[in-house]
Amino acid sequence: MKIDHVAMYVQDIEVSKTFYETFFSATANQMYHNPKTGLKTYFLTFDSGARLEVMERPDMAKTQPHIFQQGLIHIAFNVGSKEAVDELTETLLANGCTHISGPRTTGDGYYESCVFDPDGNQLEITI
Prior knowledge:
Layout (H helix, E strand, L loop, with lengths): L5 E4 L3 H12 L2 E2 L3 E3 L4 E7 L5 E6 L17 E5 L3 H13 L3 E8 L5 E6 L5 E5 L1
Parallel strand pairs: 1-5, 6-9
Antiparallel strand pairs: 2-4, 3-4, 4-5, 7-8, 8-9
């Protein structure tokens, strides 16, 4: 069995789509729009085949992100090397992402950094 995709609601679907295309080399499908409910979605496919669905609708609840909130807490992207972790972290921070931690080697041996994406979702950049 494998997970087919992970989905998340976002504040601005075009901003999120562009963010993941630009910084994580995702490829978006054509937007689905349900005019009855206002739902809009994109499936973003990454080089590995993993998929992330970003969704927007006018009646979604807004919450404040917190790194220790209950539920799905982060998406981890393996970028292949310490140098790539460092470089992508610097690029994301220079483009307005909020820094959470790292780059650093964690107690369990991972080299990682963590940032918030434009919607406050925690992203872990690792090898």
